[in-house]
Design goal:
mainly alpha; 7 helices; 80% helix
Length: 171
């Protein structure tokens, strides 16, 4: 049986987050193209700054989500080291490569158009694919049951979402 979704091999797992950062930067750059053109910098410099900033942001989120995930795994009886959780999340990243540019473009689109709906579907499909791969990686890493692995994912999402909601409420 051929699997449609496959995680990255562990030796190249770090590439998952690097490509994710570049794809996020691509979507952000396209969504804000007018501001990039209006910048008083050469376009190559502007694009380099957007790419470096987006990639560093994604790397920071990767470390933060991995730390929360590691803690939630420990809560459920997991014994994996933090680095293993960090790499498990990165190996599951390829579906997010599709979702990453779609999110800023969706936020910038505003009105409901067919393109807007397509972007939402792309983002949702990427996130769903990521979750399926991540749960499979966690089952293998921790020896979790399917229920424990999905519980891990749910706890991690709820914690991160509550943190983001508190962060946004303070703005």
């Amino acid at each position: 049986m051929v699997k449609l979704l496959r995680p990255l091999p562990y030796p190249v797992a770090g590439i998952g987050v690097l490509v994710l950062g570049i794809m996020w930067s691509l979507g952000s750059g396209l969504a804000n193209w007018d501001q990039l053109q209006a910048a008083e910098l050469p376009m190559v410099t502007t694009l380099l700054l957007v790419t470096v900033g987006g990639t560093l942001t994604v790397a920071g989120v990767w470390f933060g989500v991995s730390a929360v995930g590691w803690a939630m795994g420990r809560l459920l009886g997991g014994k994996a080291r933090f680095v293993k959780v960090l790499f498990a999340i990165s190996t599951a990243a390829p579906p997010l490569w599709l979702a990453a540019p779609a999110v800023p473009l969706t936020l910038a689109a505003g009105a409901s158009t067919p393109a807007h709906l397509l972007l939402i579907l792309m983002g949702g499909a990427g996130v769903l694919g990521f979750m399926v791969l991540l749960v499979a990686e966690l089952r293998e890493l921790e020896g979790f049951s399917r229920l424990q692995a999905w519980g891990w994912a749910a706890l991690t999402i709820v914690f991160c979402a509550s943190f983001l909601s508190l962060q946004n409420a303070s703005l």
